[in-house]
Amino acid sequence: MVVPTVDELPTAPDRGAGGAQFDLDAAAWAAAIGAWTTQVNALGLDVNSKHAEILAAALAGDLPPLTGHALKLLRVNAGEAGVEFFDLPLATALAAGVVKKSTSPINIAGVDDATYPSVAGVVEIIGVQVPSDKVFNSGPQTIISAGLLTMAHGLAGITPSSKFRFDILLECIIAQGGYTVGHHSPINVGATLSGAGAQGTSITWDATNFYVRYGALSLVFQFLDHTTGARYSPTNAYWNFHLRAELDG
Question: Which candidate, 209, 212, 205, places its Cα nearest to that of 162?
Fold first, then answer.
């Protein structure tokens, strides 16, 4: 098919050229504009038809048959010569950056001390997680007033100047203060100082270990009673201490 062409219009009429010249240019312009409009319309129709042909050819040549592939994903084939449909495999265990078919509560914190319910059979996208060589999880630790907790972190390249983000969870092992057994309560990192003494923690580290110094008061921590909202200092033996450290950078 011959591609339509559009003729150039004659000189546009200009009143500054004078009356006689303006009349001549206007007459020529008026005589040509009808045919020019027809040519432009024909070119537009040709462009539209070519677009439809190209799209149809692309779909017919690159896409495999759609029938029988409902809800499947599309990817470039191994030979990089076309595309193909495929099913996304479902992982059977929690892993970083994969799709997991949930059949039971999953541990979204990456440690045994924090599990959250999920609906069985739901496909969950597990976000890209921090590499395991940059994260330390202590597991449950005993709380002892003024005690020093020493924990080997197993992380490479750590110095006292390394930067970490810390999270502390207290795990209730005997019901108290409105909390039930198994409840995990986040608590601020650091110490609370008062006339009565010191509560909380101090944390340092070196190439081998994390060192957690507990406050000297008989009740190491302080937060809120979950029932009344009043200030509450939990009994040390009723709770376990969990530390999570993530290397920053």
Answer: 205
Rounded-to-integer distance, Cα 177 and Cα 246, Å: 30
**DSSP per-residue codes, 28-61:** HHHHHHHHHHHHHHHHHHHHHHHHHHHHHHHHHH
Per-residue tokens: 148: 């020093």
Rounded to whole angstroms, the Cα distance separating 133 from 153 reads 10
Contact 211, 148 (CB under 8 A): yes
**pLDDT tens digits in sequence order for the chain, 249 residues long:** 577 888 888 888 888 877 788 889 888 888 988 898 998 888 888 888 777 666 666 666 666 777 887 877 777 778 877 778 777 655 444 444 444 444 444 444 444 434 444 444 444 444 445 556 788 999 999 999 999 999 999 888 899 999 999 999 999 999 999 999 999 999 888 877 766 778 999 999 999 999 999 999 999 999 899 999 999 999 999 999 999 999 886
Amino acid letter, residue 177: G
pTM (2 decimals)? 0.49
> Token pair of 181, please?
């057994």
Distance CA 249, CA 4 (A): 62
Instruction: Quote the tokens at residue 131.
Output: 């590499």
Q: Which helix (H) or strand (E) holds 202?
A: strand 197-205
Judge whether 160 and 237 are in contact, CB under 8 Å. no
Q: In what helix (H) or strand (E) does residue 22 lie, and over which residues does it extend?
A: helix 19-62
